[in-house]
Amino acid sequence: MTSCIRKILSDKKKLVCTVSLLIWGVFSIALLSATYLSHLASLKERGNLARSQVEEMLANAQAGINKALRLELDDCNKSLYELRNIVAVTPDIRTISLVRNGYMYCNSIIGKLSPERKIGNYQERLYVRHNSALDHSPVMILTQKISKLQWVRVGISEYYLLRALQRINGDGAVVIKVGNTSYNEFGIIKSKLDKYEFYKKSVIYPFSIYLDNKFTIDNKTITYLLVLAFISFGLALLAMRFLTGLNWAKFEVENAIINNKIKPYVQPIVDDNGDIVGGEILARWIKDNGEIVPPNVFIPTIEQYDLMVPMTLSLLNQVIEYQSLYHYKRLHLSFNVTEACLNDPKIKQVCRILSRYCDVVLELTENQQLVQTDTAQTMMASMRKFGVKFALDDYGTGYSTLDYLRKIKFDYLKIDKSFVDHITSDDVSNAIIDNIIALADRLNIRIIAEGIEQPEQVEILKSRGVIYFQGYLYGKPMLLDEFATKLV
């Protein structure tokens, strides 16, 4: 993943454009979502308000009916004055009519009808008449039955309904549906309500609210989107400076350590009989695609950014968790460490645990000069108490070999491969190896010969008293699973 990011970062123009689009896209989606949710909430609020407005008008109409019920309704002449008075003092209503057996016989405006006029839909609780008898304009009628053959009807002028809708609406998005008739603030809607969605039904009167959920981007939102585009470009420039300033190599290696992608491999160490007595733990980075990264690629990064301690801790813990390694014999397992590792209390604690199962050997290379020798000696002495031993790796290749041996007590010296390679043909290499063996013998330090690839090398070293060998002749570095099978 990080390699892909680094590839993108190499093209700064592409990076700025990509990040700008990403930032603008995220903010734009957030803005449009917020705008739509606000639009939807506003629409529902207007729908609720429209319902309450119509219910209030119908409640006034019902109040008019209730007042009319107290009158002597069989006789139009006796009740006409009071009916007109009710219309005059009751908000929103236009007329009160009396119907008997399907015929209107009294109306608050016309008075007594003679002959009586036949009325349709007179039994419906609420309906809209598109062509009123008075002025041929639409009127909404609320009806209540007062006896087996008698009804009171209150007419609400379309004007009152439209005025109420106009106060809460402005774009035709809220619709009142009564029976088969639908209203918005512009009047009766003659087309089907295909673009409208049912929202809510009144629980008091037989009408419903429909909403037009169509969402359009207004000029203000477009302005905001343009402003966001400029802001996104600026943020992209800042992001580019931040991303290009990140140390991706360090991040990638740290991530590999944390997720145990750097695995412990073991190269066997054998005795003079060819039996495996242990092994050196070597780090190999296995990527998600199965690629094995050799140590010469990532170890310099680990050393540069002081990541040896966390990597060593990770390797130690992975080796501890592999318990099947300790079922056959007590092994010698060595780990490459630095001075920082020696001084780390966590590594000390993990070495204490691992020493219960095997002989732990910590290898220092003489190329890594100890800065605080006294502190290192103290830590090494405390770790020796629970069985940890120490080896000097790559012996003879550094500039302070003898001084190292004078200051630090080691249990093993490892003869470097550069000397072993020429032991069969080079007198100088032979002389150096003889001196190393003689010095180790005097200091009571055991020798391990590294880089063994030919049987002739083994025979020569055996003849000089070397009893531990490591190299491709006995096995290349391998996973713990494969190493465990060789112990059976």
Automatic annotation (TrEMBL):
The chain crosses the membrane at residues 222-243. It comes from the Bacteria. Residues 246-488 form the EAL domain. It catalyses: 3',3'-c-di-GMP + H2O = 5'-phosphoguanylyl(3'->5')guanosine + H(+). It is found in: Cell membrane. CDD domains: EAL. The keyword DNA damage does not apply. Its EC number is 3.1.4.52. It is a multi-pass membrane protein. This is cyclic-guanylate-specific phosphodiesterase. It comes from Photobacterium damselae. The lineage of its organism: Bacteria, Pseudomonadati, Pseudomonadota, Gammaproteobacteria, Vibrionales.
